Amino acid sequence: MSLHAKLLKRLAPWRNANTWRIAFSGGLDSTVLLHLLAHLAKTESLPALSAIHVHHGLQAAADAWPEHCRSVCDALGVPLEVVRVQVQPGASLERAARDARYGAFIDATHANDVLLTAQHRDDQAETLLFRLLRGAGVRGLSGMPGERVLGQGHLLRPLLEVTRAELEAYAALHQLSWIEDPSNEDRQFSRNYLRHQVFPVLTERWPQAQATMARSAAHLREAQGLLDELAQIDRVEAGSRSDFDWLGLPSLDLAVLEKLSAARQRNVLSYWLKIRTRLPDSDHWSGWEDLRDATGDARPIWRLAEGELHRASGRIWWLSGPWLRTPPVAGRWADPTLPLALLDNGQLSMTGQVPDGPLHIRYREGGEIMSLPERGHRDLKRLLNERGVPLFARGRLPLLYCGEQLLAVAGLQGLNGSVRDGWNLHWQPPTEDQGLS
């Protein structure tokens, strides 16, 4: 089967997309992909083609690459967008450059768009070996997925079944020109070391090494799919409703998780958390064990890259964004007939007859007393204990005051208004959209 036919077959499910955008570095692989698609577009009804070139600014030679990419795209009649990014300094230049590059791809990928990248079978084998040497688990060893969500659209890797030799042969046949990145020869980068130092030795002894390693990655993707199916079953079981779903926070029933084996606990937590944060490696899961095994009066927290797991009210809760910041003092509510936006703490509104007097919003400091019909004066801490309010939420419950009198606690039925006077205080807690992306 020709490269054109392989590519068309691989992309068949995506022909209703708005745009096929090629990630075009100007190197051999992406040049072949661009050329293949541009020529297919002459005989096939395809989505609109465009290309995007990300300029990292990491080496002087790269300054000439956007112009080369533009000339190639102009010759093929494909629009090109050049995006300049700032690579953040860090321990791994490879990773920082990748993060910057994919950040640009995410920004460029809109609803029903497809971003096409040119990784091939040899890249897949390199990825498997690279991750194996880093001690990756099944998910990591399953290699690069052929497709995944990216931004509001999808990322596809349609050449994963094609070898580098096939791409080189195509480029030679069509007399294509491409950029040779000098950094690809630098052995200090792990992937370059594997490509130039390790794989030649492996393939000399085992000529089909790359093919068999790519096949192993496919087997591991299948195994990961089964693990994900099991995790989904466990997540549904542990995701039962709670009295505090109105907080809008992801949570799981701890008692359900504790019935699972340690391996199944890690599996379902990894599945649940992977869309929320970068996960620690297998040697750094002691934070989960400390959270799970803490005594009843403890307040354990497992801090992860993009948020925290808290244990409260028999559940574990994911907190991120504004939930990790202490809301500042709110102050006077000048017009309670209008909603009040609370900095880092959502929004308040009131229904019914507005109470008389100047109204203020405060947060707990300790020692608050509330007067309740038929119960007299009650300590707020005790009232919150009675309702089992999670500790992490108590300090951000908006309290409505008239002078020094505590009138209502937003969000808690029976404490959030006055049945006699016919008014209620409503709180919409903060969402992640208000904080970290």
From TrEMBL:
ATP binds at S25, G26, G27, L28, D29, S30. InterPro entries: Lysidine-tRNA-synth_C, Rossmann-like_a/b/a_fold, TilS/TtcA_N, tRNA_Ile_lys_synt, tRNA_Ile_lys_synt_N, tRNA_Ile_lys_synt_subst-bd. Keywords: ATP-binding, Cytoplasm, Ligase, Nucleotide-binding, tRNA processing. Pfam families: ATP_bind_3 (PF01171), TilS (PF09179), TilS_C (PF11734). It catalyses: cytidine(34) in tRNA(Ile2) + L-lysine + ATP = lysidine(34) in tRNA(Ile2) + AMP + diphosphate + H(+). It is an enzyme of class 6 (ligase). The keyword Nucleotide-binding applies. Residues 359-427 form the Lysidine-tRNA(Ile) synthetase C-terminal domain. It is found in: Cytoplasm. Its EC number is 6.3.4.19. GO terms for biological process: tRNA modification. Its main location: cytoplasm. GO terms for cellular component: cytoplasm. GO terms for molecular function: ATP binding; tRNA(Ile)-lysidine synthase activity. HAMAP family: tRNA_Ile_lys_synt (MF_01161). Ligates lysine onto the cytidine present at position 34 of the AUA codon-specific tRNA(Ile) that contains the anticodon CAU, in an ATP-dependent manner. Cytidine is converted to lysidine, thus changing the amino acid specificity of the tRNA from methionine to isoleucine. Belongs to the tRNA(Ile)-lysidine synthase family. NCBIfam families: lysidine_TilS_C, lysidine_TilS_N. The N-terminal region contains the highly conserved SGGXDS motif, predicted to be a P-loop motif involved in ATP binding. This is tRNA(Ile)-lysidine synthase. The gene is tilS.
